[in-house]
Structures are given as structure tokens and as C-alpha cells.
Design goal:
Distance between the termini: 59 Å
Structural class: alpha+beta
Shape: globular
Strand content: 15-25%
Radius of gyration: 16 Å
Helix content: 10-25%
Amino acid sequence: MTGPVHRPAPPERMCPSTPAANATVFLGMITPAGRVAYVTPQVPAEVALGTQTREPGPVESRFRLAGPCVTSSCGFWTGTNCGLGERLADSYRETGGPADVDLPRCAIRRSCRWYAEQGAPACAACAHVVTDAR
């Protein structure tokens, strides 16, 4: 007789585009071209936010931040998945993005909600997202 199989718990799903108020991870800087320049290894959000200068506008227009996915507390939650990640992946496919793209080095890919649900197309499109924090 064998004992029960112990499987590790799945990682907490992370939102790769969360407002600063919910952020736990600094993903990268928004470049002047409007793309994310990712930072690896993982940097705690409070480290990046602590270096913030008094530039005008929301911090999310300069930094890409990640935090725990809040599922039903988010306007993008469909009841079963993240609608924003789904739209990004669909848009990437519709614009003819390459299927075998080199994905960016991302500090949260293992736990990313978009990547877990939509795979490489959402990951490839992610660098073009700037969080709207009006």
C-alpha cells in the first residue's frame, strides 16, 4: 500500500498589469515608445515605488507592476478567466504575430494569469500594455 500523493499547490496567479495600490512585483519600465522593458530577476514593487520621483501622472504610466490576481474583484474577470489576457492573445493572433516568438524574460511567467490561460500569444503582446490608472 502506498501513501497519498502530495502535489505542490499551484502558484498564486499574478496579474501582470495591476495598479500600484495592489502591486507586489515591479515588472519593468515603460519606454518612450510605450513598450515594457522587463526587469529580471524579480524586484519587489515597494523597492521601485520607493525610488519614484515626483513626475506628473500616474506611476503606472512609467512602471509596469504585477500583483495577485483579484479575480471577481476585477472588471476584466469573466467569471472563468481574465478577459483582458484573452483579448490580448486574440488581438496578437489576428494581427498575424509569429507563433514561435521569443518571449521576453519575465519575472512572473510561472505564476502569470495571462500566460497560464492564453500561453505565448498573451505573453508576446504583454510588452505593449500600459496599465490605465486614471
